[in-house]
Design brief:
By secondary structure, this protein is α/β, with parallel strands linked by helices. The protein has helices at about 65-85, 120-130, 135-140, 150-155, 170-180, 190, 205-210, 255-260, 290-295, 320-330, 335-345, 365-375, 390-415, 430-440, 455-470, 475-485, and strands at about 20-25, 30-40, 45-55, 55-60, 60-65, 90-95, 100-105, 170, 185, 195-200, 205, 220-225, 225-230, 245-250, 270-275, 275-285, 300, 310-315, 420-425, 445-450.
């Protein structure tokens, strides 16, 4: 199961030519992080400068992202980075979750807080779109699994709101760079999540747009990973550290950045990006758009440097997070490490639940929804009372591990190659119980990558792009810097990172 082919890279240096610092901004659905990479002699260090708690908020009956809070936190983090790096900052790059976007007014300012992909407004828009463009045809054209969270269905849903559905839009990571002074663009790995890309031309699909009745005039131009889209401007640019700072689109989709941050060889490997969502897949050189792939829930998303991240979306630690929130509201708060420890001691649990069941994607009363799913499978329920929280947690972890195993079996059948090992990335890599259960269920060795693999990949793309000086990056260029940056663990200590976050 080999990765995309790439010719021998030009660079093999241990340190970059430009020794100024670099900033990686990673927008997460639970927290946004601003990290700083600095060089001292031939050694590097990465410091987590600032962390912004983040979660969608209910606003006028809809689920939206608190954009002003995110932007003010980014501004604060950048100012902290400038104070920390008197040598100057060469570049800033932003990655984050996919599919969500900001609509812009004629003044370039947001028309409102962006909708969260979990908002249920897309239920109707996807049903309407399926009548215009058959989902099987959409998958063959775009390579993207036709999920209702995809940007295409969100853009169509805007027609039922008071937002101008013809207004220009831009995905969230690229929007942050746009606000910092960059051009309005769509980075390729992020654009592949819209389900509006022609998988053959790597550009917006005129045929898909025609069928779903969307106009391309509101769409940003697509650029490849590693593109420099401008210089930092505004009040931040008045700081000495930001006098000549490039704005770079890395692999703007955080999963593509996380995969780019894997330091060990990827041949024969699968990855599980474990956070709010779990993404189970591997790197492939060419897209797979067969009926078998679509029916198994796999999608083809652009990878940094070429090729595709071929994976399936699995519900993740969102389930446990929402259970913990429910218990907190009932006056039964839990410390996560203690919950995991006690769950590891509970050998008995009532059964496996299908973690992808729609009720387990919701954000309310998850313990009750777990019991509903147990009941549908003839299993005993778990009384939602003090002391039983570890039983719920054990059930969730066992169910996730079982789903990972079935997803990997499907992956092997579709790709036609045996998986030899698994890389677990993201906050879930800190969860030793889930890691152990995954190894037991799959029978495969499991390697846990850097908990901040998206940040490592973000920096690796920045360095590879800067060394290439405008020529196309290659997978091995990025992998070289990922290995270099992973030589020692550098980011903030693991206690500040939750096994729930992505």
């Amino acid at each position: 199961m080999s990765g995309p082919h790439s010719a021998e890279p030009l660079l093999r240096s241990a340190t970059p030519k430009d020794k100024r610092a670099r900033v990686a901004i990673d927008l997460g659905a639970q927290s946004c992080r601003i990290s700083l990479l600095r060089w001292r002699d031939n050694h590097h260090e990465i410091q987590l400068i600032h962390r912004i708690p983040n979660e969608p908020v209910h606003e006028n009956g809809a689920l939206r992202w608190p954009l002003d809070k995110i932007l003010s936190g980014v501004d604060e983090g950048l100012r902290m980075a400038a104070q920390t790096a008197p040598e100057g900052i060469a570049s800033i790059a932003v990655d984050g979750w996919a599919v969500d976007y900001v609509r812009l007014g004629v003044d370039g300012m947001p028309l409102g807080n962006p909708f969260c992909y979990r908002d249920e407004r897309t239920v109707r828009s996807k049903q309407a779109a399926d009548l215009l463009a058959n989902p099987e045809w959409m998958f063959e054209q775009s390579g993207a699994q036709p999920l209702r969270i995809n940007t295409v269905y969100q853009l169509l849903a805007d027609r039922d709101t008071d937002i101008d559905s013809q207004a220009p839009w831009i995905n969230l990571p690229e929007y942050v760079l746009y606000r910092l002074g960059g051009r309005r663009v769509a980075e390729y790995t992020n654009a592949t999540h819209t389900a509006l890309i022609d998988i053959k031309t790597h550009d917006w699909s005129n045929e898909i747009l025609r069928r779903v009745e969307l106009r391309c005039g509101a769409f940003p131009p697509i650029v490849p990973s590693g593109s420099v889209i401008g210089k930092l401007t505004g009040s931040l640019a008045e700081l000495n550290a930001f006098r000549d700072t490039d704005l770079i689109v890395p692999a703007c989709h955080d999963t593509a950045s996380a995969v780019a941050g894997i330091s060990s060889p990827l041949e024969g490997s699968a990855y599980i990006c474990s956070g709010t969502w779990s993404l189970v897949g591997t790197l492939i050189a060419a897209p797979i758009t067969t009926h078998e792939a679509r029916d198994a829930g796999f999608t083809n998303q652009g990878a940094a440097g070429g090729g595709y991240c071929f994976h399936t979306n699995v519900n993740g630690l969102w389930i446990l997070q929402q259970c913990m929130e429910s218990w907190r509201r009932q006056g039964r708060p839990w410390d996560l490490p203690s919950l995991i420890e006690q769950a590891a001691q509970r050998k008995e649990f009532p059964g496996i639940v299908p973690v992808d069941a729609p009720p387990l994607m919701l954000d309310d009363n998850l313990p009750a929804h777990i019991n509903e799913q147990l009941g549908l499978r003839g299993c005993a329920s778990i009384e939602d009372c003090a002391g039983n929280e570890p039983v719920f947690a054990r059930t969730i972890f066992e169910s996730l591990a079982a789903r990972y195993a079935s997803a990997l079996q499907s992956l092997e059948q579709i790709v036609g190659t045996r998986v030899q090992r698994i890389h677990i990335l993201g906050g879930g890599s800190l969860n030793r119980l889930l890691t152990r259960l995954t190894a037991e269920r799959t029978g495969l060795p499991v390697e846990t990558g850097n908990v901040e693999s998206s940040t490592i990949g973000n920096f690796a793309v920045q360095l590879a792009a800067s060394e290439r000086q405008g020529t196309p990056m290659r997978t091995e260029d990025i992998r070289h810097w990922a290995r270099r940056l992973s030589e020692k663990s550098i980011l903030s200590d693991a206690r500040s990172v939750s096994p729930l976050t992505n």
